[in-house]
Every structure is written in structure tokens, then in C-alpha cells.
Specification:
This protein is an all-alpha fold and 114 residues long. It has one domain. The protein contains 4 helices and no strands.
């Protein structure tokens, strides 16, 4: 699951990096600084996903990515798509971990019977 979540966050890092190319042409610099903050937050949270703070920062990144749409309207759409990817990564990751645990438990049960 962590690999899926890290992949989403690193993709967001790159997407925000490309959005910064658009933000540099804005009349105010606040959109540029906000985008830099989101990119750094995505990168930082991808490394901290082993800990609870990484999960909190990951969710915060999703919210801020959608909010970045107030500076670059396309980010409303992209932020929503990445929020969907984030949720799907969590759901599929949990299912995969449950299937792996069941497979390991089944394998250990067969070893003890023989």
C-alpha cells in the first residue's frame, strides 16, 4: 500500500511542478509560493508515510492540491483526480495486504499439517 501512496504523491509533486510553470506568469506571487509549498509537502509526505504524520500530510496535500485550483483553475480537476487516486490506492492497498496475510496464513497452516 505504501508504494501506491508514494507513487501518487510523487506524481503530484511533478504535476505541481508543471503547474508552477503556469503560476510563474500570474500577476501575484502567492500562487507561486503556494504551489512550491504543495510540491514540497507532497515530496516530504511521501517519505514520511511509514509514520502517522506522513498520512496526515498526505491527506493535507490532497486538500491543498484541490485548493490550488483557486490560483490555477485546472488544478480543481487534477486535484480531484489525484484525490480519487489517493483513495483508490488506500482501498486497493488494504485489500492487497489482507490477501497477502490470508495467503501467508494459509501457507503456514499447510506447513504445520504436514
Amino acid at each position: 500500500m505504501l508504494m501506491l501512496l508514494r507513487s501518487v504523491l510523487i506524481m503530484e509533486f511533478f504535476i505541481v511542478g508543471f503547474a508552477l510553470l503556469v503560476a510563474k506568469d500570474l500577476s501575484t506571487t502567492s500562487g507561486l509560493y503556494f504551489g512550491i509549498f504543495i510540491a514540497l509537502l507532497a515530496f516530504l509526505s511521501s517519505g514520511l508515510l511509514k509514520y502517522r504524520v506522513g498520512w496526515v500530510l498526505g491527506w493535507l496535500t490532497q486538500i491543498l492540491l484541490i485548493a490550488y485550483g483557486f490560483f490555477i483553475p485546472t488544478m480543481f480537476i487534477l486535484g480531484s483526480l489525484f484525490l480519487g487516486l489517493w483513495v483508490v490506492a488506500i482501498i486497493l492497498g488494504r485489500k492487497g495486504e489482507a490477501a497477502k496475510a490470508a495467503h501467508l496464513a494459509k501457507g503456514q497452516g499447510q506447513d504445520s499439517q504436514s
